[in-house]
Amino acid sequence: MPKLNLRLKFLLLSILPLVLAASAISWLVFAQAERLAEAEIRTFERNIVEARKNELKSYLELAMASIDHIYSVASSRDAVSKERVKAIINDLSYGEDGYFFIYDRDGTALVDPPQPWRLGRTYWNLRDINGNSVIQALIFNAENGGDFHRFIWEKPSTGLPAEKIGYSLMLDKWDWMIGTGIYIDDIAEQVQEIETEVSAHIRETTISIIGVTILAVLLVGISGTVVTLSERKLADAKLKELTHRVVDVQEQERLRVSRELHDGISQILVSAKYSVELAIDRVAQGKSDATGPMEKAARRLHDAIHEVRRISRDLRPAVLDDLGLKPAIESMCQELQDRSGMQIVVKSDNVDAVLDIERKTTLYRVLQETLTNIERHADATHVMIQIARTGGDVVMTIADNGIGFETNRFIRNRDPRAGIGLRNMRERMEFHGGGLTVNSEPNDGTTITARIPADPEIRRPNTLVAPDIL
Question: Which domains can be identified in the chain, with CATH numbers?
Answer without folding.
Answer: 1-225 (3.30.450.20), 228-315 (no CATH), 323-453 (3.30.565.10)
